Amino acid sequence: MAPHFTSSANDISSSSSSAQSRLANISAHMSPSTQSSVFTQDVVPQAPEDPLFGLMAAFRRDTSPNKVDLGVGAYRDDNAKPWVLPVVKMAEEKLRKDPQLNHEYLPIAGLADFTSAAAKLILGGDSPAIKENRVASFQTISGTGAVHLGALFLAKFYPRTANQPVYFSAPTWVNHHQIFGNVGLPVQTYPYFSSSTKGLDFTGMIKGIEAAPEGSIILLHACAHNPTGVDPTAEQWKEIAAVIRSKNHFPFFDCAYQGFASGDLKRDAWAVQYFIEQGFELVVAQSFAKNFGLYGERTGCFHYVAAPSGAEASSTATRVASQLAILQRSEISNPPAYGARIASAVLNDPALFAEWEGNLRTMSGRIITMRKALRQNLENMGTPGTWNHITDQIGMFSFTGLTESQVMKLREDHIYLTKNGRISMAGLNTKNIEYFSKCVDKAVRES
Ligand SMILES: Cc1ncc(COP(=O)(O)O)c(C=O)c1O
């Protein structure tokens, strides 16, 4: 019922004088300078600085002409400069000329031409999952957004009857811990990197996954594992799939480097496609930041794939999509258009696609050349230790095995890398590789 007001002139004057005295009382208690925040130190403690951002800031402050940035997780050309892929320039040109282009909202699930091409890229053009209509794909805020949407969906809907944690490799991309922690999922790790061989601790990995409580969510890096650069072989992936199956675990693939790792899009998608062939129900977080150089355009995709079970699989995918739409709506409403339009233009045009494959080979090829040169230099100088892992590892990063004190020694030579000894191979080029190799040799010998 609507409120009913009756007041005489007297009522008004008496209520206005009491309002005035209330106001006077309030203003007596309100002095802006003495207001204290509800967010006290106990409630909101100072967060530690992100180690990578601290490193980047220190690099920027350094005025040495010799400085080398090996922290950055983005491709650099042989002049240590960001590289706009030629294919991206071509697609931008095409977009600019399109008279139909407007700036309307995209649908909640994103640009359909983009999400369907993205699904084909990672799941395979002739994927049975796509043919059988059992995939739900959502455009996301790059790979981070895809991991987040997946984590949020699983936090809300995955039946963790025994409160199973989510399992990450040790180590993993640091943000995995934050993203899954933020949605309230408990996290655990399985062994992954062997510090003695600087390769995969395969036995440890299998045992760790086997020991995880039945039905755990297992996060796997599809290729070019970050931060180690160490990937399982195809035979090892088969064993990983077998143990995940035997424990009814749920695979969550994070794919941030397809095509960027080996230069071959199909090869880098092999593990995901193998799991799908084996009939797993799974999810994939896909980033187009590295392989298109679209870092700031936040272009990514999240895919849910239902296990093959006839018509039921397709209706499961439809139901999952309906819930993903609600989650997406509450988080970002509609994904950003620009990066998706560029990626879509390339993915859906055979000539541009072929150009992109060439650009991918340029990036991965330069990184592989740098790996070979670094290993060769260290071996030629007889730098103590073994260096085969530099070329055995793949993708953007190498886990060098350099200790924290060696990393700090390198800092004195204006070389910036994270304390765990991870280097971004893209930071090396023909102009700084000799300098870097010599500084590593010195740091290793001095320690
Ligand atoms: C393993 C992994 N997943 C996801 C991402 C997400 O990257 P972006 O959000 O830039 O696509 C990265 C980026 O470094 C990564 O290394």
TrEMBL record:
Superkingdom assignment: Eukaryota
Domain Aminotransferase class I/classII large: start-end pairs: 66-436
GO molecular function: L-aspartate:2-oxoglutarate aminotransferase activity; pyridoxal phosphate binding
Entry's transmembrane regions: none
EC class name: transferase
Keyword Transferase applies: yes
A single Gene Ontology CC term: cytosol
Keyword Transferase: yes
Any single Pfam family the record assigns to this protein: Aminotran_1_2
Keywords: Aminotransferase, Pyridoxal phosphate, Transferase
EC number: 2.6.1.1
Subunit-structure text: Homodimer.
NCBIfam families: PRK09257.1
Family note: Belongs to the class-I pyridoxal-phosphate-dependent aminotransferase family.
Protein name, entry field: aspartate transaminase
Organism: Xylona heveae (strain CBS 132557 / TC161)
